[in-house]
Amino acid sequence: MSSFLSYVNPTADSPWGTYLAQVDRVIPYLGHLGRWVGMLKCPKRALIVDVPIELDNGTVAHFEGYRVQHSLTRGPGKGGVRFHPDVTLEEVMALAAWMSIKNAAVNLPFGGAKGGIRVDPKLLSRHELEKLTRRYTSEIGIIIGPQQDIPAPDVNTNAQIMAWMMDTYSMNVGATATGVVTGKPLHLGGSLGRIKATGRGVFVTGREAARRISLDLDDARVAVQGFGNVGSAAAELFAQAGAKIVAAQDHSGTICNANGFDLAELIPHVKATGGVAGFMGGEAMANEEFWDVPCEIMIPAALEGQLTADRARRLKARLVLEGANGPTTTGADDILTDRGVLVVPDVICNAGGVTVSYFEWVQDFSSFFWTEDEINVRLDKIMVGALKNIWETADRHKVSLRTATFAVACERILQARDARGLYP
Question: Is residue 38 within 8 Å of residue 1, measured between CB atoms?
Answer without folding.
Answer: yes
